[in-house]
Amino acid sequence: MDLRKLFALFFSFWCIIVFAQQQEVISPLGKSYNNNTGSISFTLGEFMNNTFSSPDLILTQGFHQSKIVVVGNQPLLHQGIEILAYPNPVKAYVILKIEKYQDFSYMLIDMTGKIIEKREVVSTETEINFNYLEPSLYVLKVLWKEEDVRSFKITKN
């Protein structure tokens, strides 16, 4: 087989693998709203490509992601329950603090989207071990009855 044909075949497969993967953004803010006349959703921090304006409205369109992960570092009240994760950045352990921890669980996710750990929260303060993890960014997703409640962006030093 000709070397150019082999290279072209290899390059074609590489393009399919790289460009066919689902794109995902980890965003600091995003939300979806629905009613009987339609729906609208947004994600902060994505590229924009068009802006339309009228006297009453400005609409900026961009590349919208179908999967939204909202991250933040501020305490969140969920049904009157404060949820905290500290210290951040972390060297060894993160403490996940939830006053009324019943029906809560957490997932630790790396930047490739791989779930590293998923566990139930069994006390008001849960130690999450980061000792074995490489220095990187991680997402700590807090769930209540399998519903996403809060995500924290955790930096491992």
Structural features, described:
By secondary structure, the protein is mainly β. The chain is flat, with a radius of gyration of 21 Å. Strand 4 and strand 5 (58-62) form a beta hairpin. The chain has one helix and 14 strands. Helices cover 11% and strands 52% of the residues. The strands form five sheets. A four-stranded antiparallel β-sheet has the order 7-8-9-12, with no helix packed on it. Strands 11-10-13-14 form a four-stranded antiparallel β-sheet, with no helix packed on it. A two-stranded parallel sheet has the order 1-6. It has one helix spanning 3-19; strands spanning 25-27, 30-35, 38-43, 48-53, 58-62, 68-70, 76-78, 81-86, 93-98, 104-110, 115-120, 125-129, 136-144, 147-156.
Topology overview:
Layout (H helix, E strand, L loop, with lengths): L2 H17 L5 E3 L2 E6 L2 E6 L4 E6 L4 E5 L5 E3 L5 E3 L2 E6 L6 E6 L5 E7 L4 E6 L4 E5 L6 E9 L2 E10 L1
Parallel strand pairs: 1-6
Antiparallel strand pairs: 2-3, 4-5, 7-8, 8-9, 9-12, 10-11, 10-13, 13-14
